[in-house]
Amino acid sequence: MxxxxxxxxxxxxxxxxxxENKKPEFKExxxxxxxxxxxxxEMFESIYEKANAGLYKYRSKSEIDSVFRKNKAEIxxxxxxxxxxxxxxxxxxYTGSCHNELTYPDSLDNHLSxxxxxxxxxxxxxxxxxxxxxxxxxxxxxxEIISINNMSADQFLTSLGKYVSTDGFxxxxxNIKIETDWLPFYIYLAMGKQNxxxxxxxxxxxxxxxxxxxxxxxxxxxxxxYNKRHSKEFEHTISKDYAYKLLDSxxxxxxxxxxxxxxxxxxxxxxxxxxxxxxxxxxxxxxxVKNLIVDVRGNGGGNDPNDIxxxxxxxxxxxxxxxxxxxxxxxxxxxxYYIDDDIDxxxxxxxxxxxxxxxxxxxxxxxxxxIWKPNTNAFQGTIILLIDPYVASAGSLFASLVKSDENTIxxxxxxxxxxxxxxxxxxxxxxxxxxxxxLSFSIVDIEQDxxxxxxxxxxxxxxxxFKVVQSHKDFMSNKDTQMNFAMERIKKL
Length: 493
Fold this sequence. Notes:
Elements: H1 34-51, H2 61-72, H3 81-95, E1 101-103, H4 106-113, E2 123-126, E3 129-132, E4 144-148, E5 151-152, H5 153-161, H6 172-176, H7 183-191, E6 196-202, E7 210-215, H8 219-226, H9 232-237, E8 242-247, E9 252-257, H10 268-286, E10 291-295, H11 306-312, E11 322-327, H12 346-353, E12 356-358, E13 361-363, E14 382-387, H13 394-403, E15 408-412, E16 421-431, E17 438-448, E18 466-467, H14 472-477, H15 481-491
Parallel strand pairs: 9-10, 10-14, 14-15, 15-18
Antiparallel strand pairs: 1-17, 2-3, 4-5, 4-6, 6-7, 8-9, 11-13, 11-17, 12-13, 16-17
Helix pairs in contact: 2-3, 11-13
């Protein structure tokens, strides 16, 4: 399961050099006519209707049709390229899937990245407030942002949050993404080019609102600041792919799995991971460890079957990866605009795996969705699952399975990925003919093999039993609020 949430490590491509002899796709003053925008919008709508199995997952057809009509009506003469992007994105975000993307062509990104138009300060989201994550000019780390360019902090969060597409109706995942290195590009999409930013802020332990005017920078300058951000020290402690240790003082194992991107079943990465898991759970069983903290914070997904393999060591029941999984096509619609390199292989793969046709949908057959049994070394004690808003795709599928079991305590914040299901597995990418915008989404709509829970509504992410967020004080001292809460909770069991 390939995770394709927008993450800004890919934005480094913005500052890569163009091939000297390659004709650029765009002139500096590039613009589209109204007719060109309408053609692209209509192609976008057709692609979504013919290929996106999750289009009506969270909204009715009449609601989706209405949002298409409303935004198409916004296409008028003199609409800018950025404004046209926003018109398309309004629809994409409304449909609700963490795998949705709409990206500028590389050549235009490359051009923009060199301009001094970007916000320079990394930010941190804590307890519904925004804080600076770096000493910058006269603004100290940990200062509360009151407004930016006369936009209140709440308005700022709402304005930028729409550029993060989440499963269903989740909001937590939208707010948290201001912490990433996509921040300056989100601000550009929301506000357009800015020569400077007028900031109102309050320093720590002060109610006095101060003002500062800071000059815009090229993207590389922001990225350099981001790499010096205050929270990097703490984030580094939860960034390893996977690790295990025993917390002797509380007879508890700590298993960290912050990605499932180790490779597919035939790769060396997966095989090494499988050996690691077998060793960990053999040790847990031999030493009769009573509690296990499973930390999947930051896990945005990865490859099959890494998520399901881990769950087999935690499960108390037989299970499948999903209850149902379907697509709405087998032969690729609009192949002229399809740009992924699997164009020849994908139709055959879909016909093999999604071979059951019912009511206009092609369902996955059972040979691709086997029944798993708990591993012979499956953990029998209490599981404490740590989650955060970055958990999505394979990460949230795993977390939903774990939460569905009775021996689990979930601590942290609601995940970006859905509890009951998501649209994932197979990513596809189209290039719109006039704007050259790249439209990416996943094509398999999945119902996850979980129990119905009273605290989980359709469209929610995985919600914690104990909502715990990092405090401002712990942020300033780079302490792990959630882990500390988990360890104290274990002492009370």
